[in-house]
């Protein structure tokens, strides 16, 4: 009987970022980078290998990867072992996600209502499909819509080979701005000359220029994606009536999932979980070994029953984790039942939070961490600091003014709150200022925050619990002790990978303009 040997990494924090399948794949690619006759892999051997990795290939070129590595490793001839190789791979993967998220952030019906014209003639039948499309797919649909109107015979399926001759861009610009376009731009036979004319025309429309003629001709997918986005050139609008409270929870869960470091990136939560695969990845992250991957089907999945099988396994594991799943079946997820999906994800997120807190006192034989333990900790922390605020539950309406959380943050880090900026919270404007400041201070500390100011103002108990828990988690890591009756945790008992240093805080501050999920990804990488 053969024995299986996994790929081991000495740093537990780094090991936790990958599955064994990913580690074996990366190890194979790393070894393949070694030049014939060489004893070691050098830094300069890495760019061709790293550029082809999923997530990096879509956004960064080999030249850009090389530039990043040269800034990190001045001596490109120095040798590198497999474990240090994993760290720049993680950072580059995150960087590629940040770039793509920034570029695609406004590409949705809410911020770009002009996209509705893509389905204006089908009596609304295609609107639901359009909403579920990933932003880059939506951009392709928009581009082909206008190309068809302009008389372009081909269909663009990607932002590399299909646009490298510049012809599609020429037709697109002639449809969007005929007053600035010329026949020579389309009729030119030289791809480089056509690409040059395309960019000159785009500049007349005040499109942001991300590419050069060379980038178009060479078919740089990441830069052509940015160029396609710049031609939409539309202004954001206010929220549509279809916005509902569930959308805030969807946002929070989506950011949380993307911060876990799983292989799949979630663009549209309700659509992306319907195959069950994303949920299985999350479950495997939260409860390692719980998923039977031999019985799982990876997207793209053509046969519907395979999706049901995946989701049935999700339900089975959820029940093993004691989730409340009465009368819930896998097909409910396949059908996209938003209420049941959100309920399941909340239980999953809550379990993850409680596990993290429990791990900080893992040496003890106490009962499981509960919501009540978090509430008691928060009230005691505020009381110990000499403040008088207190909440009875995570539904306590007094939370709305923001004062309790500001006092809690001040209790865990005395100088972090600037009290001259704190309002009394007597009206909606003051409540929103306090809520916004709470999130800013928590992120500055290095807490993982996914909620919005409105969640605090409206006292959303789920989001209030997650905020309290993440402050508690940060505090226990910092102080190295969990105080309970007759029990304490020494700093030596904390997992080494859980430590947070000053560099983490700096990264969090620098990334504050991005959404919470990106901040958490950076924090996870540097931890």
UniProtKB/TrEMBL annotation:
Signal peptide: none annotated. InterPro entries: CH_dom (IPR001715), CH_dom_sf (IPR036872), Fimbrin/Plastin (IPR039959). One of its GO terms (biological process) is actin filament network formation. GO terms for molecular function: actin filament binding; metal ion binding. GO terms for cellular component: actin filament; actin filament bundle; cytoplasm. The keyword tRNA processing does not apply. Transmembrane segments: none annotated. The keyword Metal-binding applies. Residues 133-236, 247-353, 368-476 form the Calponin-homology (CH) domain. CDD domains: CH_AtFIM_like_rpt3 (cd21299). Residues 495-518 have a biased composition (Acidic residues). Keywords: Actin-binding, Calcium, Metal-binding, Repeat. Residues 483-527 are annotated as: Disordered. Interacts with F-actin. PANTHER family: FIMBRIN/PLASTIN (PTHR19961), OS02G0588300 PROTEIN (PTHR19961:SF71). This is Calponin-homology (CH) domain-containing protein. It comes from Eleusine coracana subsp. coracana.
């Amino acid at each position: 009987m053969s024995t299986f040997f996994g790929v081991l990494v000495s740093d537990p924090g780094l090991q936790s970022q990958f599955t064994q399948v990913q580690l074996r794949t990366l190890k194979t690619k790393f070894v393949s980078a070694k030049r014939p006759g060489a004893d070691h892999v050098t830094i300069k051997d890495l760019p061709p290998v790293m550029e082809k990795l999923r997530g990096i290939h879509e956004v960064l070129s080999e030249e850009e990867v090389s530039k990043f590595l040269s800034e990190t490793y001045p001596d490109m001839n120095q040798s590198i072992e497999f474990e240090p190789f994993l760290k720049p791979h993680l950072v580059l993967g995150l960087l590629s996600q940040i770039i793509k998220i920034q570029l695609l952030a406004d590409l949705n019906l809410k911020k770009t209502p002009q996209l509705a014209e893509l389905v204006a003639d089908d009596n609304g039948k295609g609107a639901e499909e359009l909403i579920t499309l990933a932003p880059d797919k939506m951009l392709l649909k928009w581009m082909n819509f206008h190309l068809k109107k302009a008389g372009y015979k081909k269909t663009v399926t990607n932002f590399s080979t299909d646009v490298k001759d510049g012809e599609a861009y020429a037709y697109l610009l002639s449809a969007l701005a005929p007053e600035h376009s010329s026949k020579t731009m389309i009729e030119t036979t030289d791809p480089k000359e056509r690409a040059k004319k395309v960019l000159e025309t785009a500049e007349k429309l005040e499109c942001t220029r991300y590419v050069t003629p060379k980038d178009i001709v060479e078919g740089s997918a990441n830069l052509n994606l940015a160029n396609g986005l710049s031609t939409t050139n539309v202004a954001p609008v206010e929220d549509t009536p279809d916005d509902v409270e569930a959308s805030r929870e969807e946002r929070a869960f989506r950011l949380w999932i993307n911060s876990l470091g799983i292989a799949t990136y979630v663009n549209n939560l309700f659509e992306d979980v319907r195959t069950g695969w994303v949920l299985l990845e999350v479950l495997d992250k939260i409860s390692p070994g719980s998923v039977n991957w031999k019985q799982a089907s990876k997207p793209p999945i053509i046969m519907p029953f395979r999706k049901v099988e995946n989701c049935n396994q999700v339900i089975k594991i959820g029940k093993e984790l004691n989730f409340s799943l009465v009368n819930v079946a896998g097909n409910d997820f396949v059908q996209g039942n938003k209420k049941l999906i959100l309920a399941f994800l909340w239980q999953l997120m809550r379990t993850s939070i409680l596990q993290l807190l429990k791990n900080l006192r893992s040496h003890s034989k106490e009962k499981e961490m509960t919501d009540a333990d978090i509430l008691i900790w928060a009230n005691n922390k505020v009381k110990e600091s000499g403040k008088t605020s207190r909440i009875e539950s995570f539904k306590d309406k007094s939370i709305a003014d923001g004062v309790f959380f500001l006092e809690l943050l001040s209790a865990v880090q005395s100088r972090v709150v600037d009290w001259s900026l704190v309002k009394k919270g007597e009206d909606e404007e003051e409540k929103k200022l306090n809520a916004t400041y709470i999130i800013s201070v928590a992120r500055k500390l290095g807490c993982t925050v996914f909620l919005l100011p409105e969640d605090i103002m409206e006292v959303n108990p789920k989001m209030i619990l997650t905020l309290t828990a993440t402050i508690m988690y940060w505090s226990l890591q910092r102080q190295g002790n969990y105080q309970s009756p007759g029990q304490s945790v020494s700093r030596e008992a904390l997992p080494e990978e859980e430590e947070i240093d000053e560099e983490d805080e700096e990264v969090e501050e620098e990334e504050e303009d991005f959404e919470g999920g990106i901040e958490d990804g950076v924090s996870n990488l540097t931890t």
